Structure formats: C-alpha cells, structure tokens
Give the backbone structure.
Amino acid sequence: MVLEQYQRDFISFAIANGVLSFGDYTLKSGRKSPYFFNAGKFSSGASLSKLGQYYAAAISARSAEINSFDVVFGPAYKGIPLCAATVIAIANGEGRDVQYAFNRKEAKDHGEGGSIVGAALQGKRILVVDDVITAGTAIRESMDIIREAGATLAGVVVAIDRQEKGRGENSAQSAIQEIEQQYGAPVVAVVTLGNVVEYLKEQNNESVAAMEEYRREYGVN
Ligand SMILES: O=P(O)(O)OC[C@H]1O[C@H](OP(=O)(O)OP(=O)(O)O)[C@H](O)[C@@H]1O
C-alpha cells in the first residue's frame, strides 16, 4: 500500500496533536484497541485550518471516485466545523468556491426557520464530511436529509477508516463498506488503519505488532 505524502503528514499531525494515540483502549464496541482517534482534539484555529487542508487533499486525490459535487455538508455537530474548514481549504488552495451546509439537530421555528443552514441542497450533488463513521447512523441521517431535499450523494469523506468488521455475528463488512454498497457512493478516508500501520512501520514504531494483531482479529479483507 502506497502512503501518499498528505497521509504521512496527516498521521504525524494527528499524533502531534494527541488526536491519534497508542496504548490500551476499550472502545464503545467493547473491543480492546491498541490505538484511539479523537478528532475533538483538533481544537485550535491553526489545527482546524490544517485539518481542512487534509480533507481537501483527500478529496482531490480521490476526485476520480467522488466525481463532482456542489455542496459540502457537515452533519451536526462535529461535521459543522469540518464542512466549513474544508470549503475554506478548497477556496484557498484551488481557488474553487464550493458551497457548504449543515443541519440543526433541533429544527428552529422562528426567524428563517428550518433545520438546514447554508446552501440550498435541492437538485445538487452533496459531499458529506464527518470525523468518523462508527455504526453509520449519522451518515444515514444525512442521507435522509439529502433525499428529502431532492439532492444526490456524491460521496462521504471522513478522517480515518478503522477498516474493522461490524459487530453483527456474520458481519464481514465494515460500516463504511455497508454504506458504500447501500448508497452506491464512495466513502473516502484521509487515512485508513492500513495507512497508519504503514506509517508506523516506516518509523520502526513499537506499536506495529499490536496494531497488526488487532487488524488480524477485527480487520476486514
Ligand atoms: O456512525 P455513527 O455510529 O453515527 O457514529 C459516528 C458519528 O457519531 C459522532 O457524532 P454524534 O452523533 O455523537 O454527534 P456530535 O457530532 O454532536 O458529537 C461522530 O461525530 C459521527 O457523526
């Protein structure tokens, strides 16, 4: 697996910000993981600005799959700064003025009202950005919003794909693979678990063995 330079930079940036850490973690799924990714720690102007640039880099690197999009949509709440940072990075880096929108978790019944803030979605191709996909609930909710608005899904971008099997007895697929299949649109991650392992190998990092073992146990093919 070839590690692109933006992916190498993103992993080292995530480690430096304490977003990606290695140790013994128990996940919501109950799985014991040798690593943890907490995007909430990108919590300053400079780190959010860089994060937007990594999303923009991933979108550009995978443009053949994503094809074209008109609006970047961020599901509340954590998707909100992400969609804003991503369109700013696209405007500054590529000179392309892309629209953005996000939802309110609770619809507002005064003022302009409604539950979508930002660009109108109707008839447009929507790229959804979020930090992570776990069970896929947030993305399915976004899909409902997109369909109700008469728009179509161009793709989804997340920071990391853990590439692990779902928790169902016979689940051989990850939540990301299920979403790709269900909606017929690509889900692109800035980095995958495979990329992280590759990076750690390059660095002769001591966590490689534990990461590979985790991947053997829970990884998808
Ligand atoms: O694939 P899922 O199982 O939906 O899990 C991932 C979602 O969960 C988190 O958001 P959450 O819904 O907790 O809301 P928040 O952004 O307000 O924290 C996260 O930001 C994703 O949107």
User: Anything to note?
Assistant: The mean pLDDT is 95. Residues 5-218 form a domain with the Rossmann fold fold (CATH 3.40.50.2020). The CA atoms of residues 136 and 175 lie 6 Å apart. The two ends are 14 Å apart (CA to CA).
